[in-house]
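Hi V.,

Quick status before I head out on leave. The structure for the redesign project is tokenized and pasted below; the design run finished overnight.
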């Protein structure tokens, strides 16, 4: 009997229940300082999946599968216990497919990816052995998990492994981002209110403008017809215009 089968027996879903597990997916890399003679590799690197909080992911994660570039031997690496990571070396950056499996076989695996980063952002400076860290915060959301999976997800067993803090305080970043979004929303709402005010003002003024135009039209009754011509239209006014026209074509 496989270790998944007991879980599959308890497949009833907990309606209206949602659980969220924050995780970190990323990699670290360190330059050798020069190309390695035997294979031309320039960096050592480690790609990983780890919990955001100090908990033992193996309680609910069965295994993590990392699919490396096809040039690596055995490119599909499966890690069945913490730390869920793969260490290798290389010279180029590429996309790594990451697949997370759960102890409860009723829960579908989660597919995601991580772009391996070896170099610092500037890319033009001198080669250093400073560690490069590329890490993202993500969340696995369990909507209506099975009762068995719910039990595993709520154990919150503390990890016995040495804790490595996240590169960034993602909670603080989230708060800052939400505040920026709220500020932008307030600004947009104010601009919409101002625009509505200008539109209403235009609606109020429009009848007055129409009335003024009507008065002008009444007062202009009986005037010379040419006064009603568009301002941009050419107007000939008697012989003077003809004289000017004749002078412009004559010799000086």
């Amino acid at each position: 009997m496989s270790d998944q089968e007991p879980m599959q027996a308890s497949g009833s879903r907990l309606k209206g229940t949602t659980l969220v597990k924050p995780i970190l997916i990323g990699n670290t890399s360190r330059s050798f300082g020069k190309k390695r003679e035997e294979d031309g590799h320039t960096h050592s690197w480690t790609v990983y999946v780890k919990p955001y909080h100090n908990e033992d992911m193996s309680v609910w994660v069965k295994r993590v599968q990392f699919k490396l570039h096809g040039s690596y031997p055995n490119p599909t690496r499966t890690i069945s216990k913490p730390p869920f990571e793969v260490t290798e070396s290389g010279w180029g950056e590429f996309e790594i497919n990451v697949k997370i499996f759960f102890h409860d076989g009723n829960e579908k695996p989660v597919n995601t990816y991580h772009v391996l980063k070896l170099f610092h952002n500037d890319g033009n400076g001198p080669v250093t052995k400073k560690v490069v860290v590329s890490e993202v915060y993500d969340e696995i959301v369990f909507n209506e998990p099975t009762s068995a999976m719910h039990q595993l997800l709520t154990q919150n067993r503390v990890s016995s492994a040495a804790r490595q803090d996240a590169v960034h305080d993602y909670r603080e970043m989230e708060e800052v981002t939400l505040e920026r979004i709220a500020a932008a929303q307030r600004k947009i709402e104010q601009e919409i209110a101002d625009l509505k005010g200008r539109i209403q003002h235009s609606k109020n003024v429009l009848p007055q403008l129409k009335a003024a135009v009507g008065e002008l039209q009444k007062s202009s009754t009986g005037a010379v017809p040419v006064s009603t011509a568009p301002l941009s239209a050419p107007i000939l006014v008697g012989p003077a215009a003809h004289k000017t026209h004749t002078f412009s074509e004559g010799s000086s």
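Above is the designed sequence. Confidence is low (pLDDT under 50) at residues 1-6, 239-252.

G. will cover questions while I'm gone.

Best,
W.
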